[in-house]
Amino acid sequence: MIRRIASIIATALMALFVVMGTTSVAHAHSDTFQSVPANESVVSTPVVELQFTFVEAVAQEFAPEVSLVNAEGAAAELGTPTFDVTGATMTVPIVTGALPNGVYTASYRIVSQDGHPASGSFSFTVEGSDADPLGEAVPVEEEAVVTEADEELMVTSSGTDAGNGQLQLALGLGAAGAVALAAVIVIVALRRRRNSSAK
Questions:
Q1: Cα 155-27-117 angle, rounded to 5 deg
Q2: S-S: 109 plus which of 40, 73, 119, 182, CB 3.0-4.6 Å?
Q3: Residue ranges of the CopC domain (predicted)?
């Protein structure tokens, strides 16, 4: 009897851990990324492209917005982003060629495959370059223009994700309830066994 109850508790705990783990993964979006050049790195080799690797695939039907500016605000001309077969690594060519010396900040705005917009930036320093300086500072748009159709799709995807999150929460609470109930049963069974032994 005791072994059976212990087995039930173990199963309920495993279910709870699985549900909670799934919920954590579901809420990890593309705000986390790795870059080439690396963030806050000092680069002495020619920089002719930027590379972003995200934790999940990018929804390529939404055009990514990427900018690259130096400390004075002058922007480098960038080409069209391309993706690898996983859809999680984005490469952006620098049309103006190798970057001249200076401190640069690269920024991006994308939409994850689950419909959530994500943005971020990283900085790096170029040294030992003989490339010509960039032109005058050019204002850079901070946010991408999203069409009504794009907005509707993102809202739909977000709603679905929220529904999944609620279901996972309900399952987690159910598993926790099962653990609590099993614990009560164990306590009652042990007390009865002790009382019987005492008699």
A1: 40
A2: 119
A3: 29-126
C-alpha span between 115 and 52 (Å, rounded): 18
Q: Determine the Cα–Cα distance for residues 1 and 103; give it in Å rounded to an integer.
A: 69
Matching residue, tokens 């008699």: 199
- Tokens representing 143 are 């946010």
pTM for this structure? Answer: 0.59
CA distance 88 to 52: 8
Residue from 103, 54, 106 nearest 78 by CA = 106
Whether residue 75 is contained in a domain is answered as yes
Specify which residues 118 forms β-bridges with.
Answer: 110
Q: Which residues contact 67 (CB under 8 A, 6 or more apart)?
A: 75, 78, 106, 107, 108, 140, 141
**How do residues 106-163 score in pLDDT, each as one tens digit?**
999 999 998 999 999 999 999 999 999 987 655 545 444 445 555 555 555 555 455 5
**Count: domains in the chain:** 2
